[in-house]
Amino acid sequence: MTKKFLIFCFLPFFLSACDYVTDLEGKIIDIETGKPISGATVNLLDGKDIQETNADGFFSVSFCPTRLTYPKVLITKKGYKPFEIEFDGSDKQKIYKVTTETKYVKLSKPFYFIPNDTSSYMVNVNIDKWSRNFSVGDTLKIYLKPDNENLEVKQELEKIKRNWATQNNNNSN
């Protein structure tokens, strides 16, 4: 009798744990070319729904929203930096949490700010480990960044060199 009573009392909680299923739809785009990325893996973490983008870069994953958990999606594609986003909030306010992290890259040789001046140099640089650009409108658009470490290190060093030169020119005036 007690077991039947407990099951009867808790049955509504189990049945209402997922009142409805909703879809999260979007498009994956190459940030440099603006073209859609087909075949990217869209993994709804915790929801166990894994899909691939179609030829036009579109995807749709289904999840069961609850008050305790919000969907977290991981997008991966070989040759691109991964992208992870968590959706939070209510009907009135949406909050998007994007994973960001830098990657330490040791330089093969020291980088000198001024050629032939060995007093100021760097031996490492940090670059982004994750893609992190997205937009929300009629369609959620996620922009993946190509994973090209050598090019990113070169661009970061050029940026540091320009900033260093500008700062030293301002200090000498």
Topology:
Elements: H1 2-15, E1 22-30, E2 41-45, E3 49-52, E4 58-63, E5 72-76, E6 83-89, E7 94-98, E8 102-112, E9 121-128, E10 133-135, E11 140-144, H2 149-172
Parallel strand pairs: 1-11
Antiparallel strand pairs: 1-4, 2-3, 2-5, 5-6, 6-7, 8-9, 10-11
Number of domains: 1
Order of helices and strands: HEEEEEEEEEEEH
Shape-level CATH architecture = Sandwich
Judged by helices, strands and strand pairing, the structural class is alpha+beta
Radius of gyration from CA coordinates: 24 Å
What can you see in these coordinates?
The protein has 173 residues and is of the alpha+beta class. It has one domain: Carboxypeptidase-like, regulatory domain (Immunoglobulin-like, Sandwich), CATH 2.60.40.1120. 22% of the residues lie in helices and 39% in strands. It contains 2 helices and 11 strands. The strands form 3 sheets. The protein has a 5-stranded antiparallel beta sheet with strand order 3-2-5-6-7, with no helix packed on it. Strands 4-1-11-10 form a 4-stranded mixed beta sheet, with no helix packed on it. A hairpin with a 3-residue loop joins β2 (41-45) and β3 (49-52). The N and C termini lie far apart (89 Å). The model is unreliable at 5-16 (pLDDT under 50).
What features would you highlight for this structure?
22% helix; alpha+beta; elongated; 173 residues; 2 helices; four-stranded mixed sheet; 39% strand; Immunoglobulin-like; five-stranded antiparallel sheet
